[in-house]
Design a protein that fits this description.
Elements: H1 7-28, H2 31-42, H3 46-95, H4 99-127, H5 130-141, H6 144-158, H7 162-184, H8 208-213, H9 215-241, H10 246-261, H11 263-270, H12 275-295, H13 300-328, H14 333-362, H15 364-392
Helix pairs in contact: 1-3, 1-4, 1-5, 1-6, 1-7, 2-9, 3-4, 3-7, 3-14, 4-5, 6-7, 6-10, 9-12, 9-13, 9-14, 9-15, 10-13, 12-13, 12-15, 13-14, 14-15
């Protein structure tokens, strides 16, 4: 880390990264990792699994909206709420005697991730010096990939004992969240020039023209979320059903996390592209990975590469959304980022529910093929807009 970080800055950044890793990677996105074992023991099918994932996405959106509105006033309380929702939710999932209790706990636990992101953005902005703030935000928000890797390692050690895995995830989340609260300390009173909770540096909400200017990224985010949901929810189940060894199916999940972490290596290259090109390249990569996972789930080398590509494509595509809204209006980039991320997860809620129904009727291969087409259409949206603008000119 750069020397501009004080020791207290480093502690906050490290614990903040851990909180994102726990609430996202260990809890919210780990549902699909453990789902085949949970389904076997609690006796529910793909439709119920899709409904649980869909409900979790909806509650994530609620948490994100609450955080967006209130982070500027009560960031520490939001971190506490995120920690309790994700940590205790995971513990209840571990002890769940029925599918109903498990599903309800999974939905509540997902709220933690939605609350955590805006709260940590605010805490870093308040407590890290201006010269190191941008880097600190990037490091904290990169926690999802490492969280997925740790979830995969836990699964390797503990599965098929999924209850032990969820207990461990809940305990880690509670401990890391408590460490973040200790690192954050009391509000520092540092003057702020921008309030992320309002989404605007000028203190005004975006106007109607701003909303209209986002119509293409809005549709793209929704479609991308819907198409990618099949991997997060049923990706490992597809590999298990194809007959791959349990260890390979778990390593595939680790590969997704490693692919996401690789974004930090490729960021210098992607940041030099326009937002539209970033989006097209990353979404096409994700679409190809979804197709490969669904159509050749029994070929381990292909699957492992596809999972790594999916992790990279998904994570880099979220970065492209940030670049996209920044190109539209840099002054309201925080509001645009929040809006597009909520819509991305809202698309996942719809996609998970639809995929749950399609898997039972058509099988995983056909469902993944349809999902890949949806992601590919999302990738093409900025290109289609450019051609239409060229015709008008």
């Amino acid at each position: 880390m750069k020397r501009s970080f004080s020791s207290s800055d480093r502690i906050l950044v490290a614990t903040g990264l851990g909180t994102i890793a726990a609430t996202y990677g260990l809890v919210r996105l780990a549902l699909g990792l453990y789902l085949p074992d949970v389904q076997r023991d609690l006796g529910f099918g793909a439709a119920v699994g899709g409904a649980v994932s869909s409900g979790a996405s909806v509650l994530y959106c609620v948490g994100a909206l609450v955080g967006f509105v209130s982070a500027g006033r009560s960031a520490r309380r939001l971190v506490a709420a995120a920690t309790l929702a994700a940590g205790l939710g995971a513990v209840v999932m571990a002890a769940a005697p029925t599918a109903l209790v498990f599903g309800a706990a999974a939905v509540v636990a997902s709220t933690g991730a939605g609350l955590a992101s805006p709260a940590l953005v605010q805490l870093v902005r308040e407590r890290v010096a201006a010269e190191g703030r941008s880097r600190a935000q990037a490091v904290v928000n990169a926690g999802t990939g490492p969280g997925l890797v740790v979830a995969g390692l836990l699964a390797l050690l503990l599965l098929p004992e999924w209850r032990a895995a969820w207990t461990a995830a809940g305990a880690v989340t509670l401990l890391v969240g408590a460490a973040t609260l200790l690192a954050a300390g009391r509000p520092s009173g540092r003057p702020a020039t921008e309030n992320p909770s309002s989404g605007t540096s000028a203190g005004r909400w975006p106007d109607r023209r701003w909303v209209v200017a986002h119509r293409v990224p809005v549709v793209a985010a929704l479609a991308f979320g819907a198409g990618s949901a099949v991997v997060w929810t049923f990706g490992r189940a597809a590999l298990v059903d194809a007959g791959l060894p349990v260890a390979v199916t778990i390593v595939a999940w680790v590969a997704i996390g490693l692919g996401g972490a690789a974004v930090t290596v490729t960021a210098r290259w992607t940041s030099g592209l326009t937002a539209g090109r970033q989006w097209a390249i990353t979404a096409v990569a994700a679409a190809a990975a979804v197709l490969a996972i669904g159509t050749v789930p029994g070929v381990a080398p292909v699957v492992l590469v596809a999972c790594a590509v999916f992790g990279w494509g998904y994570t880099a595509a979220t970065g492209a959304l940030i670049a996209w809204t920044t190109e539209v209006d840099a002054a309201h980039a925080a509001a645009g980022t929040s809006m597009l991320f909520v819509l991305l997860v809202a698309g996942q809620a719809v996609g998970a529910a639809v995929a749950g129904s399609f898997v039972g009727l058509l099988g995983t291969g056909a469902t993944c093929t349809a999902a890949a087409v949806v992601v590919l259409l999302a990738a093409a949206l900025p290109l289609a807009r450019r051609r239409r603008a060229a015709r008008v000119a």
